[in-house]
Amino acid sequence: MHLITARTQLSPNVTRLDVVAPRIAEIRQSGQFVIVRRAAGAERIPLTIADADRAKGTIALVIQAVGKSTRELVALQPGASIQDISGPLGRPTELISAGRALCIGGGVGTAVVHPIAQGLHGNGVGVVSVIGGRSREWVIFEEELRRLGEVRVCTDDGSYGRKGFVTDVARDVLAEGGIDVVYAVGPVPMMRAVVNLTRPLNVRTVVSLNPVMVDGTGMCGGCRVNVGGETRFACVDGPEFDGLLVDFDLLSDRLGTYRSHEQLALSRHDEACRIGLKS
């Protein structure tokens, strides 16, 4: 059992849980993730290790509440426990050791960018982070990223920072020159758009993929993606890959495979909650 020590609402549907997991906190590296199971029989959910405190033995999990299982997870309060946390899993980020990096985070992807920026900063690399959200209340991890380098913020509605998308700001940063590598994490359309920016410039671009994942060992095959014409498994070969080689069309199709099942489970969950509130 893993005790929840803190709960922070980062945006309307994104929550941070700080959880006791000392062995994971000790050895985790940038880009790695864990698989969480709230209780016996619950769904297994892959989550990036957004931060860690070795002294306290805790890790930070950032969860977007979009379905039944994630809503149940973020409803947990400090003092409650998560039954299983397996990890760290996946390959650590291949961090450059000199130069300048552009980290791009869209929505909850900003939490995934954070440990990458941490690792780069620790290597002495200059970090420019571009982050965005629908409006100001959807922008997360700005303060944490400002400790690691320059941060440029944008919002869809212009309520905070520059009006526009992260790709608009990223285009300007790339035009200024001096970027050795780009790390991009967010919705598939966003990562595809970033790759479309960097491909003509021949700038190395690393993306973090989020296919359906169950066991985290490559055995189930649910997380397979196509990279450079080859089948790779995100849980053991990734989750980060060369964005210039990723088949984003196939990734999008696979992400929609269980959408109807997820919607049914969520509707049943909401109905059960409604009845429970009335009783």
Descriptors:
33% strand; seven-stranded antiparallel β-sheet; seven-stranded mixed β-sheet; 3 domains; alpha/beta; Elongation Factor Tu (Ef-tu), domain 3; 279 residues; Rossmann fold; 16 strands
Quick structural gist:
Helices cover 31% and strands 33% of the residues.
What do you see in this structure?
With 279 residues, the protein is α/β, with parallel strands linked by helices. The chain folds into three domains: 88 residues, Elongation Factor Tu (Ef-tu), domain 3; 116 residues, 3-Layer(aba) Sandwich (Rossmann fold), CATH 3.40.50.80; 54 residues, no CATH class. The chain is 31% helix and 33% strand. The protein has nine helices and 16 strands. It has a seven-stranded antiparallel β-sheet, sandwiched between helices. Strands 11-10-9-8-12-13-16 form a seven-stranded mixed β-sheet, sandwiched between helices. The protein has a two-stranded antiparallel sheet with strand order 14-15. It starts with a strand and ends with a helix. The mean pLDDT is 90.
User: How many E-type strands?
Assistant: 16
Major β-sheet annotation: 7 strands, antiparallel
| Secondary structure category | alpha/beta
CATH H-level homologous superfamily name of the largest domain: Nucleotide-binding domain of ferredoxin-NADP reductase (FNR) module
Alpha carbon gyration radius: 18 Å
Architecture per CATH nomenclature, i.e. the level-2 architecture of the largest domain: 3-Layer(aba) Sandwich
Task: Please mark out the parts with pLDDT under 50 across 5 or more consecutive residues, or reply none.
Answer: none
Helical amount among residues, as a percent range?
A: 25-40%
Please tell me what the overall shape is. globular
What letter string, H or E per element, gives the SSE order?
EEHEEEHEEEHEHEEHEHEEEHEHH
The number of distinct helices, counting runs of at least 4 residues, comes to 9
Distance between the termini: 31 Å
Mean pLDDT reading: 90
Q: What is the C-level CATH assignment of the largest domain?
A: Alpha Beta
